[in-house]
Amino acid sequence: MSPDVNRTGLFLVGVRGAIGTTVLHGIEAIRGGMPKIGLVTEIDGLKDCGWADVESFAVTGWDVCGNAHDSAENLVRTNVLPRDIVDMSGGVRDRLEMSIAPGIPEPEDEGGVDNKSADLLELPLTEVLAQLRDDICNWKSSERLRRGAVIYLASAERDRDMLPDGWYDSDADPLELLKTAPRDLSRSILYALAAICEGVPFINFTPAPGGDLPAIAGFARREGIPLLGNDGKTGETLLKTALAPMFRDRNLNVMAWEGYNMLGNKDGAALEDPQRAKAKLRNKDVVLPSILPNNPMMHSGVSINFVPSLHDWKTAMDYIHFEGFLGAQMSLQFTWHGSDSALAAPLILDLVRIALRAQDRNEGGPVHAAAAFFKSPLEMEEHDFHRQMTIFRDWANRD
Questions:
Q1: Is the Cβ–Cβ distance between 92 and 24 less than 8 Å?
Q2: pTM, entire model
Q3: Shortest CA distance to 200 belongs to which of 226, 163, 170, 178?
Q4: Helix (H, G, I), strand (E, B) or coil at 208
Q5: pLDDT in tens, 175-207
Q6: Domain ranges of the chain
Q7: Overall average pLDDT of the 87-107 stretch
Q8: Domain 236-338's class?
Q9: Residue 380, exposed/middle/buried by CB under 10 A (0-12, 13-18, 19+)?
């Protein structure tokens, strides 16, 4: 059976998670006539750029445990998903459950995952990659998909030791490097390789390395496959990158910027592990020095605490101590409270649209125009959100 030219596959890593579940139901809600609030590609000046139709997106993917129905009910209980949308989407979740493939856990998590996922840990990494590639091929065939994208939404990975030098060589062949790679190799690298080998873009919404490794970025360039990442920017860091330019451009001296974050979902629980939290905290704290580079004495800090009762909701409290004319000291304080998944899900739809546009333009490797969506954008030093959005608008409107 030939592919349907109007169908695009979203292959989500962690498809049963809160963000994946919100993406699935968001697409169904849009099909039912709900407005596309939260999609950047739907704002004036961007919505007429000829993006792929969200209603053509079909969701499937990998996961290591869980159940799509339970995930949806949890998001209803915590006031993230509307009850009527979840009720009308039961059949969609049934079909999703039949299509989900076992994901690749980290070795330390073997005891808390489904048996089929645990079995993947016994295979050589080259065979794991072959399995992921087969999954993508099977979905394309069974779902009659013309094209697709792999979106990495797994829980924050543990920080690992530096890889051998070959991984930092953009001319290296990562498929050869994989043959001698350590067993605990970042799972994001395996999914990125599977996507590139199967000719679909790879989007990394997590702090994991993914396409940030030169060997992966170089391979994607040679194969003409877009890479988008890393670490989705949805909350406190978004506010930092929007507010910090104001202090810079008014020549106000920021002396201290302290941030405290609370998160209650599975990602929050994962970040209880210092080895999982390391990359996330690094990405959240690096943006200020890049925007406010003229004050080496500025003190900044950020922390994340797991608060189970918050569920999918996250709260950030920031305190900014700054100096004005004649040394007058002032402060700004804000509290940000939002649903982690409701903020992230529309950006996933945006990023798929961007990735497909980049692929249509034969733009392989890191897509710099997507920087505004990430805390640690690939090969991009610019963190000023407003400047990033100018770059994105110019790219989107280019013929």
A1: yes
A2: 0.95
A3: 226
A4: coil
A5: 999 999 999 999 999 999 999 999 999 999 999
A6: 4-232+342-396, 236-338
A7: 97
A8: alpha beta
A9: middle
